[in-house]
Prior knowledge:
Layout: E1 3-8, H1 12-27, E2 31-32, E3 41-46, H2 51-64, H3 66-70, E4 75-80, H4 81-86, H5 90-93, E5 99-101, H6 109-122, E6 130-132, E7 154-158, E8 160-161, H7 172-176, E9 180-181, H8 184-196, E10 201-205, H9 225-234, E11 241-245, H10 254-262, E12 269-271, H11 279-285, H12 291-304, E13 309-316, H13 323-336, E14 340-345, H14 363-388, E15 392-400, E16 407-411, E17 416-420, E18 429-437, E19 441-446, E20 471-472
Parallel strand pairs: 1-2, 1-3, 3-4, 4-5, 5-6, 7-10, 10-11, 12-13, 13-14, 14-20, 17-19
Antiparallel strand pairs: 8-9, 15-16, 15-18, 16-17, 18-19
Helix pairs in contact: 10-12, 13-14
Amino acid sequence: MNRVHIKTYGCQMNERDSEAVAALLRARGYRLVADESACDVLLLNTCSVRDLAEQKALGKAANLLRRKQHNPRFVLGILGCMAQNRGAALLDALPDIDLIVGTQKFHQVPDYLDNLRAAREAGVPLGSTIVDIAEEAGSQNTLSAHVLEERQVTAFVSIQQGCNMDCSFCIVPKTRGDERSRPMDEIVRECEELAGRGVREITLLGQIVTSYGRRDYPHAGGITPFVQLLERLDAIPGLRRLRFTSPHPRGFKDDLIQAYGRLEKLCAYVHLPLQSGSDRILRLMNRPYTRERYRQIVADLRRVRPEMYFSTDIIVGFPGETDEDFAQTRDLFEACNYDMAYIFKYSVRSGTPAAGLAEQVPEPVKEERNQILLGLLAANSDRRNATLLGTTQEVLVEGPDKKGLGFMGRTRGNRIVHLAATERLVGELVPVKITRVSTAVLYGETVPAGGEAPLATAVPASGGPKTEIEAKAEA
């Protein structure tokens, strides 16, 4: 009973949590398998941001429990946000689940599986489902281990967990708890070790990543703890690029904006959640900024880095959103000229203040507004990508393309590039001439520094289907 498969739903933080759990299990002697049909233990790391995400996980778990009818030794566990949100109430729908572990107890998973394994091998019934959703001080410091694939050149590093913002639509404060930051020295040491193992690009993660250390470290010469951390990571030898997600607009003070102009490794890409372009709706959402303040942040960042790429989060159909409110969101969406966006139709989350608001927007209206923004996004992306045709971009080659088109990498603006390359270029920053574009991706050929001839043959024009636009439109 030592073959484990972990299926992850939701955000990059969940992906990082799953990776850390996998590293802990591997160190304990468990074997991670890619094929869920070949596992003895299946763990679902879940998401609760929208009801649809929970329903998907619940449906998956219900299907998996049928395996127990044929194999009583099969172990099924639910981890993460849905486990934290619902706790033992999950047993009403899934009475045969073996394990329910919340967001501050991921590090306990190996011990709990050891207990289940020992009970199974001894033929002794454990008695009841293991449920652990308790808070634990210092839990943010327990998940620093990584499982790196061969020649892996990018990695996520969690620096902060929890959220104190209390947006009226969001369940994250309930599922992730209060803000908790990791010690800066430990984060720097983790990133140094990753760089020493060949990682060239690191993305810092947190529920409100720009709030990092605000209760733990003093400002130094007007520099916030988050920017102090960026400065230290920028100095790590071997590390070539830095990104972060997800921030909050209120975190973009002058020190962070200016950091984009002076920190060489900080990529010209910002994920800046808007949620709504209407001041009235922003107040109902409990988002502490105005449309004008948001627009000023975008303008200031473009002033420092004219080539800046922007992505955002938008909610359409928030309770009470009128045609005029949506028109303001549309206007600001067009003015900011986003390169990518996650566009969601408002989903009621029980236990949040917005769930009790009157004037819920009809589903057809939400869908119409959702499609309008998706259309604008596609046009923006087409327009931006067209300007890159024929230019030479710096691309970090990440590895073989999963669609068999050669290799893939990303620009500093986070654009995916398909290119022909060789294994020796994996992990390298190479100049790539863009020869073809689609809505979401670029195609190109590597060129030497002098530009005399390509280092590799270009990806053929017939090389597979175009990638769909990188936008989410979930119910």
